[in-house]
C-alpha cells in the first residue's frame, strides 16, 4: 500500500465537506427546484455550516493552539487548513446571501410573499401592528443589558441572536456621568454599549396582516430594533444591529476520571455556553466602533468576523418554508407507506419468522419499528427487549414502549449514547426517565461512541427461545425517519439473534465473544474485514474474474480503505461509490484510481443508508450497516454492519443501487480535478432516484392493498333468514 | 416428553480468572446454550499470592453474580448450578466468601475438586453428540489445558485408561519464561523443554505401547484459535498439517504480533502461544493424526450433568464406567487386580442391592462402595503389615477422576476396613454404612479363594439371608463373617445370616 502513500492522492476532508455544502447550496440555486424547497436547501447549508464551525473549525483551532504539527492525509497542517477554510467559508457565506438577496427574496416577492427588511418603509397600519406586537408579546420577555463599571460585559450565549446598540445618555443626564471615571462600557467618547438577546421563545418570523393579496412577514429582530428606544428610556440609541457568536463546542471528555459520565456531560453542557468564541457574525451595516468593541470583548480575530448582508442565521428559512398556503411552491409531501408484508399484519413476529423484511425509509413507514417494540412490550411471551438509542426524537413513542415493557416485568436494556453530539441534553432526559421506569440503562462505553442501531426481542415460544432482531442504517428516531433515506431489516434468523445477544452482552460490559457468526463489528474487527473483502476482490480480479464493488455511504475518509480501493482499482476491480458528503478519495488518477467513480446525491431526503456490495463473477455479498468508511467509525465507535441473507432483499438492494447509479437529476459526479458536476442529460430521460423510489413504494403499496381487498371480497356472505 | 417440555437451566463457573454464566435450553432433543456472558476477574491472583480472596474482589464477585441472577431471572430459568474451582477451593477464607455471595447475591456455590471439574468438562464434550463415543473407541488423549494446570487423560476401548494432572498451565508456563529477556526463540525452547519433560514421563508410565490417533483439546486459551482460523463455530477438527500451519504462523512471535495476527486482547495473546505449543508437543510426542477442538466450556458440562441427573437426556457416554475403569487401572498399578478384588466388588454390590430399599443409601453410594471394594487392599503393594494405612494413604493422596475430594476421603476411610476401633468414631453414618457393607463383602472371601461364589441373598423382614452351595470348609469365612456381623446389625438393624448348604 506504500505505493499509494502520497499526499497528492487524497483530498482534505474539510475542503471536501465544504464542497458537499456547496452541492446543497446548488440545490437552492436550481431553477428546476421549487421555490420553497430552495429555501429549505439554503436553510440546511446554514445549519450545516454552524455545525462545521462548532466542531471542525473549533478542533482545528485547538490543534493550532496546541501547536499540533501533524499533517492530514492530503499533507496539510492544521494551520494551513484553517487559512484556506477561512477564505472558503467567507466566500461560501457571501454566496449564500447572494442566493438569498438576489434570487430567493425577489422570487418570493413575485409570489406575493414580501419579507420586510430594514430599509422598507412601513405604512401606518403596519407600524401600528408591529408596535402593538412588540408591546404585548416581545417587551415582557426582553432583558436589555447595558455595560458600565458595575455591569461587566454579559455572557453572549452560543448561537443566540442578539442586538448590539450604541447608546448615549440624553443631554440632561450627561453632566452627571462625566463625574465617573472611564469604565468598561465606554465605547467611544460618551457612548455606551448595550445589548439585548432576541428571545428564542418567540417565533422568529411574524406575519403582518394585510388587506391585499400580498403577504408580508418581518423578522423578530427587526421588530425589536424598530422599538429599541423603548428599552433604553433615558438614552438615545445611536445605532443598533444584530450579531451572533459561535463558540467551541468540541469538548474533550476525560472519561477515565469521569466516574459518572452523566454528571460529567451535564457539567460540560453548561460549560459549552462559555467556550471560546470562534466566529462572530454581524450585520454588514453595524457601526464600525460597535463591531470593534464586540471584537475586543469577545476576543475574536479579524478573519473570524463575518459581515452579513441580510438576516443572520438562515436556518430561519425553515420557518418560512412552514408557512401555510404555499403548497404549490413545495414538493408534494410524501407520506411513507406501509411495507406490503405488514399491511393489516396482526402478528409482526409471525411475519418476521416467515421471512426477513426490509424497510426502506422514508419511502416506507417507520411505524413497524415502533410497532415491533410496543408489541414486544405487551406480549406475554417476550422475556427481554434490548435496544441502542443514539438520537431519539422528543416524545419518542419508542421510549414510551420501552418504559411500558419494564412495567410489564420484561428485562429492558437500553444503551443511551450520551456522546451523540448536540443531543446530550435531550438524551440525559430520556435516560433518566427510562431508569425511573425500571429499565437497565447503559450510558455508553468509555472511550467509544455507540453508533450501531440494533433492537433485540427475546421471546419464549413453544419450541424454545426465539430472538427477533431489527438492524438498521439509521437511528431509532421516528422524525428523522421521514427525512433520511435509511434501510432497516427485521429477521428471526438464529445466527443474527445470537450475534445480537452477544452485542448487548458486550455493551453491558462482558467480554467480547470469540467470534461473530454474521455481524461485522467495529471497533475491533470491522476495518480488517473490509480490508480483507476489498483485497479478496483485488485477488479475484487478478485471476481474471469480473469484479465490482459498489459502496454507498455518507463519508469516505479512511486512508487504509482508500489505499485498498486504489490497489483494487489497479487490479481491474470496477468500483462505484455513492458518497453523499466527505470523500477524501480522488478519481481518475492514472495508475491509481482509473476504475473508480464517485457520485453524490443531494435530494429532498438526506441520503443516509450505508450499503456495501462486493461482486465477484456471480458471487455477491451485500452488507448494510451503521458505519461509514471513516477512521472514527471504524476505530472509535461501536458499529454493526451485517450481511443480507434473503434473496429477495438482495434483489431489492441491487435495484436500489442501480437506480441511484442511474440518477441524472440529483447526482453530481466527482471529477479528477476535485470538482463535482451534475451529469449533462442531453435528451436522456430524467431519472431522479428519490422520486423513483417514492413512486415505486406507492405503487407496491397500492397493489398490495388491492390484492388484500380482492381477497377480502371473495368471502361469501350468507344471507340471514328472518 | 412432549414438545413443550423444555427446561431452562443456568450454569455458573466461578473460575480462577473468569466468571461465566450460560443459559441453556434443555429438552429431549438436546442441550442448547442460548446466552453466555463472561466477566474477567482474577480471583486466582488473590488466592495464589495472598492465600485468600480480598474484600474488593468479594465486592466485585457479588456485583457480577447479582447481575448474573438478573439475567437468569429474565430467562425464567427452572434451575441453576454454580461451581467454583481452584481459586476458590484454595482460598483460606472460601467459606466466608461463599456465605457473602449467598447472602448478597443470593447464589449458592459449590466448590468442586480438580477431578470433578475435569470430569464435567468431559461431559460437556460428550454432550456435543456421538463423536466422543466414536473417538474414544480407539486411542484418544484429552488435553484440558487451563491457566494453572492441564489434565491429560487417555481413552481407549471406550473407557478411561489413565488420567493425570500436570502442572502445565498456560499462565504458569508464561510466568516461568517471563523472566527471560525478549528473545522469543529462547523462550520457545525453554517452554518446549518444560513441556516435554512432563509429557515424556506421562508417556513412559501411562502411554506405554498404546497408540493415540486423536487429541481432543479443550480449555479457554484454545478458544481464540478459532477466530484466527476464520471459523464461525467453536467446534472443529483439523489434521496435523493444518495445525502446524497455524503453529508456524505464531511460533516465535511476540505477544504484540500475536495480538495483531489473531485480533485478541493482550491478555489472551499471552496465553495462546503456550497453549498452542502444548498441543504441538502432544502431537509430536504421541504421534497423533488430528485434533478435535469441541470448544466446550465447564458450564456446558454443568448443563450436561444436570440434563443427565434429571433424566431429561439419557443417551451419551456412561461416565460411571469411566470412574470404575479409572479405579481398576489404579488398582492394577498396585497389583490389586486379583480375583479376590473382583469377588469383593461383586459381593459388595450384591449386598448393597439386597438392602438398598431399607438402607437409605443412594446410587452414588453404590458407586463409592464399588470403588472402595476395587481399591480396598492396594496398600499391600507398599507394605504387607500395615497395608490398611498404606491403602488409606494411596487413596487420600491421589486423584480419581469424577470423584470429589470429600468422596475420595470417604473411600479412603472405608477401605481402611480392619481398623475396628475407629469404626465407632467414623465421622458420619454414611461412612459407617458403607464400611459395614465392605467388611461383610470382604469377610465372604476372607480366604481369597472365592469359595462363596454361587449364592443367593434375600431380605426377609429384618433378616438378610445368604445361602451358599459349597461342599468344602468355610470356617475362616464364617469366623470373619461372625466378627463383623454385629456391627452390620447395629448399623442397619438387619441381621445377616450365612447358611452353608451342602447337598450330597
From TrEMBL, chain A:
Catalytic function, reaction form: [phosphate](n) + ATP = [phosphate](n+1) + ADP
Cellular component annotations (GO), alphabetically ordered: polyphosphate kinase complex
Active site residues per record: 451 (phosphohistidine intermediate)
Domain Polyphosphate kinase middle: 126-320
Cofactor: Mg(2+)
Statement: the UniProt record of this protein carries the keyword Cell wall biogenesis/degradation: no
Annotated InterPro entries: PP_kinase, PP_kinase_C_1, PP_kinase_middle, PP_kinase_middle_dom_sf, PPK_C_dom2, PPK_N_dom, PPK_N_dom_sf
Any one GO molecular function term: metal ion binding
Domain Polyphosphate kinase N-terminal residues, every copy: 10-116
Residue numbers binding Mg(2+): 391, 421
Maturation and modification: An intermediate of this reaction is the autophosphorylated ppk in which a phosphate is covalently linked to a histidine residue through a N-P bond.
EC number: 2.7.4.1
Biological processes, Gene Ontology terms: polyphosphate biosynthetic process
Binding site for ATP: 48, 484, 580, 608
Signal peptide feature range: none
Superkingdom per UniProt: Bacteria
Top-level EC class: transferase
Polyphosphate kinase C-terminal domain location: 347-512, 520-690
Protein family membership: Belongs to the polyphosphate kinase 1 (PPK1) family.
Task of the protein: Catalyzes the reversible transfer of the terminal phosphate of ATP to form a long-chain polyphosphate (polyP).
Record's protein name: Polyphosphate kinase
The species this protein was found in: Lachnoanaerobaculum gingivalis
From TrEMBL, chain B:
Family matches, as Pfam families: Ppx-GppA, Ppx-GppA_III
One MF annotation (Gene Ontology) recorded for this entry: pyrophosphatase activity
Occurrences of domain Ppx/GppA phosphatase C-terminal (ranges): 328-469
Domain named Ppx/GppA phosphatase N-terminal: residues: 23-303
Alphabetical list of CDD domains matching this protein: ASKHA_NBD_PPX_GppA (cd24006)
InterPro entries: ATPase_NBD (IPR043129), GppA/Ppx_hydrolase (IPR050273), Ppx_GppA_C (IPR048950), Ppx_GppA_N (IPR003695)
Organism superkingdom: Bacteria
PANTHER family: EXOPOLYPHOSPHATASE (PTHR30005), RETROGRADE REGULATION PROTEIN 2 (PTHR30005:SF0)
Family recorded in the similarity comment: Belongs to the GppA/Ppx family.
Protein name: Exopolyphosphatase
Amino acid at each position: 500500500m506504500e505505493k499509494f502513500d502520497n499526499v497528492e492522492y487524497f483530498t482534505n476532508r474539510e475542503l471536501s465537506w465544504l464542497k458537499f455544502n456547496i452541492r446543497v447550496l446548488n440545490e437552492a440555486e436550481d431553477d428546476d427546484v421549487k421555490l420553497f424547497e430552495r429555501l429549505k436547501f439554503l436553510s440546511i447549508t446554514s445549519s450545516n455550516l454552524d455545525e462545521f464551525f462548532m466542531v471542525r473549525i473549533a478542533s482545528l483551532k485547538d490543534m493550532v493552539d496546541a501547536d499540533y504539527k501533524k499533517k492530514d492525509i492530503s499533507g496539510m497542517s492544521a494551520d494551513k487548513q484553517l487559512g484556506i477554510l477561512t477564505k472558503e467559508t467567507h466566500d461560501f457565506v457571501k454566496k449564500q446571501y447572494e442566493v438569498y438577496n438576489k434570487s430567493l427574496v425577489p422570487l418570493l416577492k413575485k409570489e406575493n410573499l414580501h419579507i420586510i427588511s430594514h430599509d422598507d418603509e412601513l405604512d401606518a397600519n403596519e407600524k401600528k401592528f408591529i408596535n402593538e406586537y412588540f408591546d404585548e408579546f416581545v417587551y415582557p420577555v426582553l432583558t436589555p443589558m447595558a455595560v458600565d463599571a458595575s455591569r461587566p460585559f454579559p455572557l453572549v450565549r452560543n448561537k443566540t441572536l442578539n442586538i448590539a446598540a450604541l447608546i448615549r445618555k440624553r443631554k440632561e443626564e450627561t453632566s452627571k456621568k462625566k463625574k465617573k471615571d472611564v469604565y468598561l462600557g465606554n465605547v467611544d467618547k460618551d457612548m455606551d454599549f448595550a445589548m439585548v438577546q432576541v428571545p428564542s421563545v418567540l417565533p422568529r418570523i411574524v406575519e403582518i396582516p394585510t388587506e391585499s393579496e400580498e403577504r408580508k412577514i418581518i423578522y423578530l429582530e427587526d421588530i425589536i430594533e424598530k422599538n429599541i428606544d423603548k428599552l433604553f428610556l433615558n438614552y438615545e440609541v445611536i445605532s443598533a444591529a444584530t450579531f451572533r457568536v459561535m463558540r467551541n463546542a468540541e469538548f474533550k471528555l476525560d472519561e477515565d476520571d469521569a466516574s459518572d459520565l452523566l454528571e460529567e456531560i451535564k457539567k460540560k453542557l453548561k460549560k459549552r455556553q462559555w467556550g471560546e468564541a470562534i466566529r462572530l457574525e454581524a450585520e454588514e451595516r453595524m457601526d464600525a466602533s460597535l463591531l470593534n468593541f464586540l471584537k475586543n470583548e469577545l476576543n475574536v480575530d479579524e478573519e473570524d468576523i463575518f459581515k452579513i448582508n441580510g438576516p443572520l442565521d438562515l436556518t430561519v428559512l425553515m420557518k418560512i418554508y412552514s408557512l401555510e398556503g404555499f403548497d404549490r411552491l413545495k414538493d408534494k409531501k410524501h407520506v411513507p407507506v406501509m411495507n406490503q408484508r405488514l399491511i393489516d399484519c396482526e402478528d409482526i413476529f409471525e411475519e418476521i419468522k416467515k421471512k426477513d423484511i426490509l424497510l426502506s425509509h422514508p419511502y416506507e413507514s417507520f411505524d413497524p419499528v415502533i410497532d415491533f417494540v410496543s408489541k414486544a412490550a405487551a406480549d406475554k411471551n417476550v422475556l427481554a427487549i434490548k435496544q441502542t438509542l443514539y438520537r431519539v426524537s422528543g416524545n419518542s413513542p419508542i421510549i414510551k414502549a420501552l418504559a411500558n415493557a419494564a412495567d410489564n416485568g420484561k428485562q429492558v436494556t437500553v444503551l443511551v449514547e450520551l456522546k451523540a453530539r448536540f443531543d446530550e441534553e435531550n438524551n440525559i432526559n430520556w435516560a433518566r426517565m427510562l431508569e425511573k421506569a425500571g429499565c437497565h440503562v447503559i450510558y455508553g462505553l468509555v472511550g467509544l461512541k455507540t453508533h450501531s442501531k440494533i433492537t433485540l426481542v427475546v421471546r419464549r415460544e413453544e419450541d424454545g427461545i426465539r430472538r427477533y432482531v431489527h438492524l438498521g442504517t439509521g437511528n431509532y428516531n421516528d422524525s428523522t425517519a421521514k427525512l433520511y433515506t435509511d434501510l432497516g431489516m427485521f429477521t428471526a434468523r438464529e445466527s443474527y439473534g445470537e450475534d445480537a445477544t452477544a452485542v448487548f452482552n458486550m455493551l453491558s460490559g462482558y467480554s467480547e465473544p470469540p467470534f461473530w457468526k454474521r455481524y461485522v463489528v467495529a471497533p475491533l474487527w470491522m476495518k480488517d474485514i473490509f480490508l480483507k473483502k476489498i483485497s479478496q476482490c483485488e485477488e479475484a480480479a487478478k485471476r481474471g474474474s469480473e469484479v465490482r464493488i459498489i459502496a454507498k455511504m455518507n463519508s469516505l475518509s479512511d486512508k487504509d480503505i482508500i489505499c485498498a480501493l486504489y490497489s483494487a482499482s489497479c487490479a481491474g476491480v470496477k468500483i462505484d461509490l455513492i458518497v453523499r458528503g466527505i470523500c477524501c478519495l480522488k478519481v481518475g488518477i492514472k495508475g491509481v484510481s482509473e476504475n473508480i467513480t464517485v457520485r453524490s446525491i443531494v435530494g429532498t431526503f438526506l441520503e443516509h443508508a450505508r450499503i456495501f456490495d462486493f461482486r465477484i463473477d456471480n458471487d455477491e455479498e451485500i452488507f448494510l450497516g451503521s458505519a461509514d468508511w471513516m477512521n472514527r467509525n471504524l476505530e472509535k465507535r461501536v458499529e454493526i454492519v451485517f450481511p443480507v441473507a434473503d434473496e429477495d432483499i438482495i434483489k431489492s438492494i441491487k435495484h436500489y443501487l442501480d437506480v441511484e447509479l442511474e440518477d441524472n437529476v440529483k447526482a453530481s459526479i466527482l471529477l479528477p480535478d476535485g470538482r463535482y458536476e451534475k451529469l449533462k442529460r442531453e435528451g436522456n430521460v430524467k431519472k431522479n432516484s428519490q422520486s423513483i423510489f417514492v413512486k415505486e413504494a406507492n405503487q407496491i403499496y397500492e397493489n398490495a392493498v388491492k390484492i388484500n381487498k380482492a381477497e377480502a371480497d371473495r368471502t361469501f356472505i350468507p344471507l340471514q333468514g328472518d | 416428553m412432549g414438545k413443550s417440555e423444555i427446561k431452562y437451566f443456568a450454569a455458573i463457573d466461578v473460575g480462577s480468572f473468569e466468571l461465566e454464566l450460560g443459559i441453556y435450553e434443555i429438552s429431549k432433543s438436546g442441550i442448547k446454550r442460548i446466552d453466555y456472558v463472561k466477566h474477567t476477574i482474577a480471583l486466582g491472583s488473590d488466592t495464589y499470592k495472598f492465600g485468600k480472596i480480598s474484600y474488593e474482589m468479594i465486592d466485585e464477585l457479588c456485583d457480577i453474580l447479582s447481575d448474573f441472577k438478573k439475567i437468569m431471572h429474565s430467562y425464567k430459568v427452572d434451575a441453576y448450578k454454580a461451581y467454583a474451582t481452584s481459586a476458590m477451593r484454595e482460598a483460606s477464607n472460601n467459606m466466608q466468601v461463599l456465605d457473602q455471595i449467598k447472602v448478597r447475591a443470593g447464589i449458592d456455590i459449590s466448590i468442586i475438586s480438580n477431578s470433578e471439574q475435569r470430569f464435567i468438562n468431559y461431559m460437556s464434550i460428550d454432550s456435543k453428540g456421538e463423536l466422543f463415543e466414536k473417538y474414544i473407541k480407539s486411542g484418544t488423549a484429552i488435553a484440558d489445558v487451563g491457566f494453572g494446570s492441564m489434565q491429560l487423560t487417555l481413552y481407549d476401548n471406550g473407557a478411561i485408561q489413565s488420567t493425570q494432572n500436570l502442572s502445565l498451565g498456560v499462565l504458569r508456563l508464561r510466568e516461568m519464561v517471563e523472566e527471560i529477556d525478549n528473545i522469543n526463540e529462547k523462550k520457545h525452547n525453554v517452554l518446549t523443554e518444560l513441556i516435554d519433560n512432563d509429557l515424556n514421563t506421562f508417556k513412559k508410565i501411562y502411554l506405554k505401547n498404546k497408540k493415540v490417533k486423536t487429541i481432543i483439546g479443550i480449555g479457554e486459551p484454545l478458544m481464540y484459535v478459532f477466530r484466527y482460523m476464520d471459523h464461525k463455530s467453536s467446534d472443529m477438527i483439523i489434521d496435523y498439517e493444518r495445525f502446524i500451519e497455524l503453529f508456524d504462523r505464531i511460533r516465535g512471535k511476540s505477544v504484540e504480533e500475536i495480538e495483531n495476527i489473531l485480533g485478541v486482547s493482550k491478555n489472551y495473546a499471552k496465553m495462546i502461544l503456550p497453549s498452542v505449543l502444548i498441543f504441538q508437543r502432544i502431537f509430536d510426542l504421541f504421534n497423533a493424526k488430528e485434533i478435535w477442538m469441541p470448544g466446550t466450556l465447564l458450564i456446558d458440562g454443568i448443563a450436561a450433568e444436570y440434563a443427565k441427573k434429571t433424566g431429561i437426556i439419557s443417551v451419551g457416554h456412561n461416565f460411571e464406567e469411566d470412574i470404575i475403569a479409572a479405579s481398576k487401572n489404579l488398582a492394577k498399578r498396585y497389583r490389586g487386580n486379583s480375583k479376590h478384588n473382583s469377588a469383593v466388588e461383586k459381593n459388595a454390590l450384591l449386598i448393597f442391592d439386597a438392602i438398598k430399599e431399607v438402607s437409605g443409601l443412594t446410587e452414588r453410594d453404590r458407586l463409592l462402595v464399588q470403588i472402595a471394594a476395587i481399591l480396598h487392599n492396594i496398600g499391600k503393594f507398599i507394605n504387607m503389615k500395615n497395608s490398611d494405612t498404606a491403602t488409606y494413604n494411596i487413596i487420600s493422596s491421589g486423584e480419581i477422576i469424577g470423584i470429589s475430594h470429600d468422596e475420595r476421603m470417604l473411600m479412603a476411610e472405608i477401605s481402611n476396613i480392619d481398623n475396628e476401633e475407629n469404626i465407632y468414631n467414623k465421622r458420619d453414618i454414611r461412612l459407617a454404612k458403607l464400611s459395614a457393607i465392605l467388611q461383610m463383602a470382604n469377610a465372604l472371601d476372607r480366604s481369597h479363594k472365592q469359595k462363596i461364589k454361587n449364592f443367593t441373598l434375600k431380605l426377609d423382614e429384618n433378616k438378610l439371608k445368604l445361602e451358599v452351595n459349597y461342599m468344602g470348609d468355610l470356617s475362616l469365612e464364617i469366623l470373619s463373617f461372625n466378627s463383623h456381623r454385629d456391627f452390620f446389625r447395629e448399623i442397619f438393624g438387619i441381621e445377616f445370616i450365612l447358611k452353608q448348604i451342602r447337598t450330597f
